[in-house]
Model the fold of this input.
Amino acid sequence: MTTTITHWLDGAPYAGASGNVADVTNPATGVVTGQVALASVEDAQRVIGSAAAAAETWRNTSIARRTQVIFTFRELLNARKEELAQLITAEHGKVHSDALGEIARGQEVVEFACGIAHLLKGGHSENASTGLDVHSKLDPVGVVGIISPFNFPAMVPMWFFPVAIAAGNAVIVKPSEKDPSASLFMAQLWKEAGLPAGIFNVLQGDKVAVDALLQSPEVAAISFVGSTPIAQYVYEEASKHGKRVQALGGAKNHMVVLPDADLDLAADAAVNAGYGSAGERCMAISVLVAVEPIADDLIARIADRTRTLLVGDGSKTRTEQGGREADMGPLVTKAHRDKVASFIDSGEKAGAKVVIDGRDVQPRGEADGFWLGPTLFDNVTTDMDMYTEEIFGPVLSVVRVQSYAEAIELINANQYGNGTAIFTNDGGAARRFENDVQVGMIGINVPIPVPVAYYSFGGWKKSLFGDSHAYGPHGVHFFTRTKAVTTRWIDPANRPEGGLELGFPQNV
Ligand code: NAD
Done:
């Protein structure tokens, strides 16, 4: 029995008129569990039209009223997170605790948006020029398209929609076709929270739906997260159509371990950040840069820990899995599993040393899932495919270097600049590192430095196209447009003389 996963239009499910669908599969079983609607251009235009009409009313709804709805959404999300986590695990494959983790990080942005009243305050300068006041105000941009990837079906949309809605915009979320149900679930929560119909919409689909959003004159801004080639396309196409756009792309995150680091803590961090969510995180550590002479020791500690990891169906309880919850689930699709495995093949062929091989890992009784165990490579060099490409799977590559300077050179030569980390007890080295690296998010003894909601998330180089990072102050800036208003009220007791003066006005 499969479910039908619809769009969300005017505050209700909408089947769409295209008749096109795609299969949605449970990655742990390989079983098709649903069919998601794929929008036609006409379906997309209907959703955009509804959002544009609703945005007009919402922007004039008081900040107090808007904020009350967001507080209620936060309460509903928190109360129903178990259900949402189960939906995520069933379509994405990540283990339940990991799914709860992404909801919690998304919820932080919802909580940030609850404080929108403070964030929308403009400036005011009284008597900026004689008898003349100036103030600035932040207006919403209108309709916002949010196009999200498969790996965080709840958190990534939540990087954007709480702030966009709080600022008075209408949003259209275009989820990944691989795990489209989380957005629909959140649409229902918004309805229960009292959000007017048309402000939160879901447009399911593929390139047709994305292009409709990028090209529609009624969509003012696009927030995209996905792979670098598509991010670049979205940035160029949306810009060409006059939109404001932020497009976050792929990553290759390096973790540097200096010889003075606590090697046990560094090994824990490398395993957690390398294999959590089966490496399908844009902030996963995929390259471990070991500054000699510690590589042998560090690799042995990582290997010991990696051998203890349990790969399994993330929806199963501890009892069903012999008393322990799986640490890591399957990969999202068979095609992606095979692509990641092909990087392991090519790394081995190119001469890297396979320390732990995940290719034959398969939990008992789960023959049809998309399994690939944690894989550890030593002696990886920068000319190998597995180093130059984003693998997006549970593969950790160790590159050995002789010095700190060599580590920095590696990081800065990379085409991506999303996240990086350094492990050391030397404060001076850490301080230098944060200055030296050309990367947007940096961890000092922190392997996955996703910023808290009141800072902003974003990488450099090919990890982000556009000027604005996600959420935090950048989010408020991205979803609003500034007006500067210059005002002169005539003081009846002190009427100015007036008269003709065609010269450029000067402030006095
Ligand atoms: P993807 O680029 O394949 O898809 C992302 C979105 O774009 C989806 O909604 C998809 O439907 C749409 N899309 C795909 N092909 C398209 C096309 N030709 N034209 C228009 N739209 C298209 O990415 P994915 O595989 O879903 O996600 C994994 C990627 O996302 C990885 O590269 C990962 O690093 C990246 N990611 C980056 C961040 C970040 O913050 N920088 C966060 C999460 C994921």
